[in-house]
Design goal:
Elements lengths: L2 H10 L1 E7 L2 E12 L5 E10 L8 E6 L3 E10 L16 E5 L1
Antiparallel strand pairs: 1-2, 1-5, 2-3, 2-6, 3-4
Protein name: WYL domain-containing protein
């Protein structure tokens, strides 16, 4: 998935529907950036879908290079979710954020 798609969802206030780690998921993007190892990541609140941990909703960090078939939905994002903080410490540099 491209960084521009994740940032577009954030700016538009829309949810992203994607395939990640073998599951369909719907997420609200809160921040997009890079780790110290230059991996593109996004901090999201998952609103629906599956996960290996069994947690169907909640905070997730997802690597963009492991995300497939992402597209904006018409579903409005309810971001920012409780607990969100600007300047995500998991990101060495931030491309876009709420």
């Amino acid at each position: 998935m491209m960084i521009s798609t994740a940032c577009e969802a954030l700016r538009a206030g829309k949810c992203l529907e994607l395939r990640y780690d073998g599951f369909s998921r719907t997420v609200e993007v809160h921040a997009v950036g890079f780790t110290k190892d230059s991996n593109a990541i996004m901090r999201v609140w998952q609103v629906a879908g599956g996960s290996h941990s069994g947690e169907r909703t909640g905070w997730k960090i997802m690597r963009l290079d492991e995300t497939f078939s992402a597209h904006l939905t018409e579903e409005a994002s309810h971001a920012p979710r409780h607990g969100y903080k600007r300047g995500d410490k998991a990101m060495e540099s931030i491309r876009c954020q709420l």
